Amino acid sequence: MLLTGDRPTGKLHIGHYVGSLKNRVAMQNAGTYDPYIMIADKQAFTDNARDPEKIHNSLLEVALDYLAVGIDPAKSTIFVQTAVPELSELTEYFLNLVSVARLQRNPTVKTEIQQKGFGESIPAGFFVYPVSQAADIALFKGQVVPVGEDQEPMLEQTREIVRTFNRYYNTDILVEPEGVFPPKGQGRIPGLDGVKMSKSLGNAIYLSDTEDDLWQKIKSMYTDPAHIRVEDPGHIEGNMVFTYLDIFDTDTEKVAALKAQYQAGGLGDMKIKKYLFEVLNNELQPIRERRAEFAQDREGVLQMLKDGSEKARAEAQKTMHAVREAMGIAYWG
Question: 211-292: which CATH number, 3.40.50.10540, 1.10.3210.10, 1.10.240.10, 3.20.20.140?
């Protein structure tokens, strides 16, 4: 089974698209897996507990992004985390199998704590969310998890918890997952300013951005501050326009020629930004159009989430029964 998902704290951006969404669609269409895709609203509360309206409003936006990129509810089960209470139960059991010291060593958590500026006021739910994530994967016996490169420490922690559970309770009912990662160099797309793409930093290009939004954002992209005149030689290292062209433009020969011309002098920033706009707009236009179509039937999208959540819960209950039996707490069969 394939298991993956996203937190509903806003619309999804092109970092999500390249980092995992494209992999999910390709694997779904391969017909080899049974994909379960979770909208992790419970996890979103770990750092948005004071803003439940944000999570509520974002739920549908994330679902629309899923459908727009090609995730098909006829091939993939899309469900909502809080609609499967067995996930919370398994998380509670898993918390007894991992130490505080191990959680503190998780590099992904350490980085995110620093980025969010929690200081000494780290919400307990945020601190232990790798355990919740392990339960999300294990409850559905996720064998394959398409994720970005930065999530490998989370997967390793999941594998450790699964091994500990199976060893403690002398069973093999839970499965150690393996990650499927994007092509090298595409795992983490920097934002418009060259730092990590983030909603909170306002440096992201969203899948739902209009053509005008896209152009305004590309015009603001960081290039080479020393490239003042067109005839000046420019640097491509750290130049976000070329970083994006390397990722999104399939015409590698043209990109190589543009790089050479830019480095030699004679190619202006606005010209390459216009070219990048064409490349990105060609990629996003069909996504944008499909999203608009699905958005016209919001009740249908919500029903899709309800149906997927009911199917997911039925699967979760099967695994949870086996977990309780292994732990010796299935007292009434």
Answer: 1.10.240.10
Confidence of residue 150 (pLDDT cuts 50, 70, 90): confident
Alpha helices in the chain (DSSP H): 14-16, 22-30, 41-48, 52-69, 86-94, 100-105, 107-116, 124-127, 129-139, 152-168, 211-219, 240-248, 252-264, 269-295, 298-327
This prediction's pTM = 0.90
For residues 179 and 309, what is the distance between their CA atoms, to the nearest angstrom? 24
Gap between the Cα atoms of 45 and 41, Å rounded = 7
Tokens of 151: 């999530």
Type and span of the H or E element at 39:
strand 35-39
**Which CATH number among 1.10.260.40, 3.40.50.2020, 3.40.50.620, 3.40.720.10 corresponds to the domain 2-189+298-327?**
3.40.50.620
Q: Does residue 281 have a pLDDT over 90?
A: yes
